[in-house]
Design a protein that fits this description.
Helix 1 packs antiparallel against helix 3 (about 55-90). This protein has helices at about 10-40, 45-50, 55-90, 105-110, 115-129. The longest helix is centred in the middle third of the chain and has 37 residues, at about 55-90. The model has no long low-confidence stretch (mean pLDDT about 85). It is built from five helices and no strands. It is flat and about 60 Å long.
Amino acid sequence: MSTTYPLDPAGPAAAHVRAALTERQGKLRAEVEATRARGASDPLRVARESTDRGEEAGAEVEIGINDAEVARDVAELRAIGEALARLDAGKYGECVDCEELIDERRLAAELFAVRCTACQGRLELARRR
């Protein structure tokens, strides 16, 4: 099925995208809360009570992993919020750099994509330099 972009905010395709984004948003919020709760169990307690450097290092690694998971999820939550705003503004499916349409296959793979493939490629190339 071919979709016309940018999406009409009141149309059925937009409703489908909004539902998918909202569902992912809910899952991510639950993951963030679970990760924060896991971190609240104070893995540093192990380090304070332990004389074993291996246990201490393991606790520090666990803290780093928890922090990285939360940061990743929060970044995706931000991207989803921005996609929902673009959807409401009738701009969902337009590249933020060149204003050309983003290929629907790209949007199907990453609902919150903000750039067309060409602009995303240029951005990634510039970041590597």
